[in-house]
Design brief:
Blueprint: H1 2-7, H2 9-14, H3 16-42, H4 47-58, H5 62-78, E1 84-88, H6 92-100, E2 106-111, H7 120-127, E3 131-133, E4 149-153, H8 161-173, E5 179-183, H9 192-199, H10 208-217, H11 224-236, E6 244-248
Parallel strand pairs: 1-2, 1-4, 2-3, 4-5
Antiparallel strand pairs: 5-6
Helix pairs in contact: 5-6, 5-11
The chain binds 2-acetamido-2-deoxy-beta-D-glucopyranose (NAG).
GO biological process, one term: pectin metabolic process
GO molecular function, one term: methyltransferase activity
InterPro entries: CGR2/3, SAM-dependent_MTases_sf
């Protein structure tokens, strides 16, 4: 086979069947190139992925977007206790960036899921250690009361009670002035199907009475004074939350 090809190249090129094959190859290269360009553009962190992440904030991870909306109200409620904040939840880079823009607020983030296409500002937050990717089913790598306030969004909706039993007290452990929980509202069925493939488990939106019972079982106490303050601040600024928000006390 080899000798025949090498031995008679002119015959091959003269053959009509062979003539079409370079054209076909070029066509395939062009199509392949277009796919490659499309693929690279998608993951480039440019305009396309920015739109992607905005829709994530608005869609899949409703409550991480909600944390961003709630920052002014949280400021009014917690005041000085907002000086050292840990946010735990998907899209934490956006929440951390937004918190860092506040005066006298230092912020860190824990991203509970693998991040695929992150933009350059998120990459730099990760590089500087402001944001880390960590599985929240395991104890958080922080000492007790490392943060004045801990805010968790969406994440708890993906945990079964077995893991919640460990994760929730651990979030309380690393806070000194409180834990704020943003969790989905049971009637909000948005984007659950897409989430299953990514997180291996569908979000389960629990009712407010389910959560209250769960807090009691785990000896976690809601902060009634803060609840009241937050409600007043919300009313004043016409802020209507799209997630359930709970305020828990830190341990003493
Ligand atoms: C979670 O903890 C509570 C209180 O300690 C206990 O009653 C409950 O059975 C635990 N649930 C699971 C699924 O481990």
């Amino acid at each position: 086979m080899m000798p025949r090809r090498a031995g008679n190249p002119s015959r091959r090129f003269g053959d009509s069947k062979s003539k079409t094959s370079p054209v076909l190859s070029i066509g395939l290269i062009v199509v392949g190139g277009l796919f490659l360009i499309g693929y690279l553009y998608r993951g480039s962190g440019g305009h396309g992925s920015r739109i992607d992440s905005v829709s994530k904030v608005e869609g899949d991870y409703l409550c991480s977007g909600e944390v961003q909306r709630a920052i002014p109200t949280l400021q009014k409620t917690y005041g000085d206790s907002m000086h050292k904040v840990l946010h735990v939840g998907p899209d934490t880079c956006y929440v951390v960036s937004k918190l860092k823009r506040e005066d006298e607020t230092e912020a860190w983030g824990v991203e509970p899921y693998d991040i695929e296409d992150v933009d350059s500002s998120c990459k730099s937050l990760i590089r500087r250690g402001s944001v880390r990717v960590a599985d929240v089913k395991f104890p958080l790598p922080y000492r007790p009361k490392s943060f004045s306030l801990v805010i968790v969004s969406d994440t708890l909706d993906y945990l079964s009670p077995r893991y919640l039993n460990k994760t929730l007290p651990d979030l309380v452990r690393v806070s000194s002035d409180g834990l704020v929980i943003f969790t989905g509202i049971p009637t909000n069925q948005k984007a659950k199907v897409a989430d299953v493939s990514k997180f291996g488990r569908a979000a389960k939106m629990r009712s407010s009475s389910w959560w209250v019972k769960f807090f009691l079982q785990n000896n976690l106490e809601e902060n009634e004074a803060v609840n009241k303050k937050f409600e007043e601040a919300s009313t004043k600024s016409s802020y209507v939350p799209r997630c359930q928000i709970f305020h828990l006390k830190s341990l003493h």
